[in-house]
Design a protein that fits this description.
Blueprint (H helix, E strand, L loop, with lengths): L1 E2 L5 E3 L20 E2 L9 E5 L7 H13 L3 E4 L7 E2 L12 E2 L3 H13 L3 E6 L6 H4 L5 H13 L6 E4 L4 H11 L3 E3 L29 H16 L3 E4 L2 E4 L2 E10 H7 L13 E7 L3 H13 L8 E8 L4 H12 L6 E3 L12 E3 L2 E5 L17 E4 L7
Parallel strand pairs: 4-5, 4-8, 8-9, 9-10, 13-14, 14-15, 15-16
Antiparallel strand pairs: 1-2, 2-3, 6-7, 10-17, 11-19, 12-16, 13-18, 18-19
Length: 385
């Protein structure tokens, strides 16, 4: 790992990994600069590139960010509501987005290009992030990333999860920066304050979990954003072993949706791949994993970390799917990593160097108890404090 300054580090990909071609732009390499850690008083812009945020939950989540010492400001269109089709009267019984594609992209671009903003935090997921990709000025975003990196603080942070996987993939590839995959203000973060906020749908935290779970989520978010080692223990190993490499992946359905597009993440050769999803039947998960395999995206992956699979059917059936689809890769596979959907939402830095170790665990039918030494671990960045 090479130093990129006091608050930013470069993460080397596989030495033989190909450069990634960007339409109308220069080829991008597999090297990513680690984002600069936050400091108390930093401004974070909360935007909604996907679904509209519930006002009460968004405010509760922003209050948590402010309690962490951050200056949280909300994007112009975060509470807008439009339907999927042409402009017109909004029907609440149809799917809604947080404003038009151009408006959501404008909020994202304005926040990323604002030198006063140190992190762009996505309010929630849902659907819509892939629709903004064509509306972004990637040259302007790249220039802003370079200016942020040159400031001495390192690149700024893009944070979110679920549907935001589309932005993680595009930012990581096109801008060459690591990004933060974790809970969002109108989701689980809204439940991390003194009094958990009200109900929300499957996207986020109506069951914010036990006090210990909420505290672990908050501590994990703070460590990832402000600086600190991140270690996420798994519950069982589907294949033993140890591997190292940059962390790739995200929500499975979004990764497969990006394949064949100009925004697809580069192949996972040499990487630890993190995968999770919500409300997907085992046969659909099987189909998506098969698509990743048949496309060649998984070729050469160093290891697999499986997060939460909330409302995805029988866990035993899922394990059989994972064993059938991922076992032939011949790499370590750690399941039960507490990240993804549901109350257990720890934060991961996509693109950062990771270590995956399953050697302290037997498979699910074994007799060994879970061991915290079997974990997905991300090293604290140099200069973090």
């Amino acid at each position: 790992m090479k130093s990129g300054g006091a608050r930013a580090e470069a993460v080397e990909g596989s030495a033989d990994a190909p450069a990634v071609g960007i339409p109308d732009g220069p080829p991008q390499t597999r090297q990513s600069r680690r984002y600069g850690r936050l400091r108390p008083g930093d401004r974070v812009a909360v935007i909604a590139p996907s679904g509209p945020a519930d006002p009460a939950r968004l405010e509760a989540g922003c209050a948590v960010l402010r309690d962490m010492g951050l200056d949280a400001v909300v994007g112009k269109h975060a509470l807008d509501r439009v339907n999927l089709g042409p402009p017109g009267p909004v029907r609440d019984d149809w799917h809604r987005l947080a404003g038009s594609d151009a408006d959501r992209a404008a909020d994202l671009q304005a926040a990323w290009c604002d030198p006063r903003v140190r992190a762009v935090v996505c309010a929630r997921g849902g659907y819509g992030a892939t629709r903004v990709l064509d509306h972004l000025d990637w040259d302007a975003l790249h220039d802003a990333a370079e200016a942020s990196a040159a400031s001495g603080r390192g690149p700024k942070i893009l944070h979110g999860s679920s549907d935001i996987t589309a932005l993680h993939a595009a930012f990581g590839t096109r801008l060459g920066v690591t990004t933060s995959f974790g809970p969002m203000p109108a989701g689980v973060i809204a439940d991390l304050g003194p009094a958990p906020a009200g109900e929300e749908g499957a996207e986020g935290g109506s069951d914010g979990g036990s006090p210990a779970c909420r505290q672990a989520t908050l501590d994990g978010l703070r460590a990832a954003l402000f600086g600190g080692a991140v270690a996420l223990p798994g519950t069982h190993a589907l294949r033993p072993g140890r591997a190292e490499g940059p962390l790739a992946g995200g929500t499975l359905s979004l990764l497969t949706a990006l394949l064949g597009t100009p925004y697809a993440p580069p192949p996972a050769a040499g990487h630890i791949v993190f995968l999770e999803d919500v409300t997907e039947a085992p046969y659909r998960i099987d189909r998506m994993l098969l698509q990743l395999a048949q496309s060649g995206w998984l070729d050469g992956a160093a290891g697999i970390a499986l997060g939460s699979w909330r409302d995805c059917g029988d866990p035993a059936e899922l394990d059989s799917v994972f064993a059938a689809r991922l076992g032939p890769l011949g790499v370590p596979v750690l399941a039960g990593v507490p990240a993804g959907h549901g109350p257990h939402q720890r934060t991961l830095e996509l693109g950062a160097h990771a270590v995956l170790d399953t050697t302290a665990l037997h498979d699910r039918t074994g007799t060994a108890a879970p061991d915290p030494a079997a974990a997905l671990t991300l090293k604290a960045p140099g200069g973090a404090r």
